[in-house]
Design a protein that fits this description.
This protein is elongated. It has 5 helices and 7 strands; from the N terminus they run ααβββαββαββα. By secondary structure, the chain is α+β, with helices and mostly antiparallel strands. A 3-stranded antiparallel beta sheet has the order 4-5-7.
């Protein structure tokens, strides 16, 4: 059995739905809980699982990365560029390690794929820049210990 929809004037122009939506909006505006955060003075606390700014972990002042090329391989945005070199002790290391954070989708695949646990994502979310060139982080800027909040 099919139900025939109502075709009245109020239903035709969605008057009831519009007034209900306006009532909910006004109720929350005047009587709802205030959630405004005064940003520079108050910082929002995100979960420890939040994925933000990248950094390269160091052990005794030497980067932990062995330039195995797993992170650029698994990166869906293809924003990681690595060029490998060799140290005198026959160990590979990244000569160039660039991450274009403007293309990055912060999925965390690079962090999961790294066998040496070298690349990490911190909880830092303040990454605004005025120029696009500053959106590419080089090895020098990634080696600065970002740490966790």
């Amino acid at each position: 059995m099919l139900v025939k929809p109502k075709t009245g004037l109020l239903n035709k122009f969605y008057f009831f739905e519009i007034t209900t939506g306006l009532w909910i909006t006004m109720k929350n505006f005047f009587f709802g809980k205030k959630v405004t955060i005064q940003y520079p003075e108050e910082k929002r606390n995100y979960s420890k699982r939040f994925r933000g700014l990248h950094y390269i972990k160091t052990v005794n002042g030497v980067e932990n990365c062995t330039a195995c090329m797993l992170c650029p391989t698994v990166c869906p945005a293809e924003c990681i560029h690595i060029e490998a070199g060799e140290r005198p002790d026959k160990e590979k290391y990244p000569v160039i390690f660039d991450i274009d954070i403007l293309r990055c989708c912060y999925c965390g695949f690079c962090e999961e794929a790294c066998p040496k646990d070298a690349i990490k994502l911190s909880t830092i979310y303040e990454m605004a820049e005025h120029h696009r060139e500053k959106g590419v982080y080089t090895k020098a800027s990634l080696l600065v210990q970002r740490g966790e909040k």
